[in-house]
Amino acid sequence: MSQMHSNMNSSLSSGYTTGRRMSSRRIRLNFWGCVRAEFIKSMSLVSTWWMIGIAIVLFPALTALQTGLTRWMSEQAPQDEMFSMDMTLLWNNIAGACGLAAFVLGIFGVMNITTEYTTTSIQSTLTVNPRRLSAMFAKCVALVGIVWVTTLVGVLLAIGAFYITSAGMSLGALPEGQAGLPYLVILGAPSGVAAICLIGCGLGAICRSTIGGVLALIGLLSILPSIFQMLSIFAVNIRWLGAAGYYLPSYSLSNFVLGRSPAAEIAYADSSDLGWGMPVWWVSGLVLLTWTVVIYAIGMLIVKRSDIK
C-alpha cells in the first residue's frame, strides 16, 4: 500500500502542477518569444507566401520591363538623337518598382491585423499575451522583419534582371554626387516599404476590417495624391496645393529611395515652379517616418482601448 501511494505521489509530482509554481508572479512572458511565435504563425499562412511571392516577383519584372522599354526606345531613335544613359537607370528602375511592391506589402500589413479580428484569433493571441500593446508590437516586429527581407531579395533579383536585360547596352558611370545612390536604394527601399507596411498595420487596427483597411490604404497611397495633383492643376495660383502632395506617404517613399533633390528636378524641367516646396530626400524619409508613427500609434491606441468581440 505504501508503495502504491509513493507511485501515485511521484506521478502527480511529474505531471501538471498548480499553486505557487504556476502563479502569475513566477511566469514571465518573453517579448522575443512572442515575436518568434508571431513569425511562425505568419509564415504558416498561405496568404503570407502569396504576398511575399508577388512582391519579390514585382521587382525584377518591372525592372526588366522598364529597362527593355528604354533599350527599345534607344534603338529606335535616330542616330543624331541618341540619348546618353548611365547607371542611374538601374537604380531609378528599381526604385520605381517600390511603389507597387509597397502597396502589395501594405495590404499584407492590413491583413496581418484584420485577420486577427475577422477570425476571432485575437482572443487566443491575447490569452497567450494579455498585454495588448506588447502583443501587437511583437506582431509588427515580426512583420517588419519579413517585409524587410522580402524587399531586399526583390531588389537583389532586380539588379540581376537589369544586367540581363541591358546586356550590350552602353551605360556610363553614375554621375558625380550620385555615388551613394546604390546604398540608398538597397537599404532605403526595404526600410521605406516596411514603413508603408506598418502604415497598413495601423489602418488595419483602426478599421478592423480587411476591406475598410485596404480601401483606406488605397485612398492614402493613390486617391489622395491624385486629388492634390488635380487641385494643383486647376488652382495654379495656390502653390501650396501642389507642395502638399510632396508630403504624402507615396511621394515621400519615392523621393526618399531615389535620393531626389529640388535642385535636380528644377534643372531637369527648367522650371523654378516645379521644385517649390519639394523636400530633399532625407526630409522625405522623416516625413514617411512621421506618417508611420502617427498612423501606427492611433491604431495601437484603438487596440488598447476598444473591446474585443
Protein described:
There is one protein chain. The chain is mainly α and 309 residues long. It has one domain. Helix content is 74%, strand content 0%. The chain is built from 13 helices and no strands. Helix 7 (132-165) packs antiparallel against helix 8, helix 8 (181-207) runs parallel beside helix 13 and helix 11 packs across helix 13 (281-305). The longest helix is centred in the middle third of the chain and has 34 residues, at 132-165. The protein is globular. The model is unreliable at 10-27 and 263-274 (pLDDT under 50). This is ABC-type Na efflux pump, permease component. One of its GO terms (molecular function) is ABC-type transporter activity. Keywords: Membrane, Transmembrane, Transmembrane helix. The chain crosses the membrane at residues 49-69, 89-111, 140-164, 184-207, 214-238, 280-303.
Précis, in short:
With 309 residues, the chain is an all-alpha fold. It has 13 helices and no strands. Mean pLDDT is 81; it is low at 10-27 and 263-274.
What's the structural blueprint in terms of helices and strands?
Elements: H1 2-14, H2 31-43, H3 46-76, H4 88-96, H5 98-118, H6 122-128, H7 132-165, H8 181-207, H9 210-234, H10 239-244, H11 249-258, H12 262-269, H13 281-305
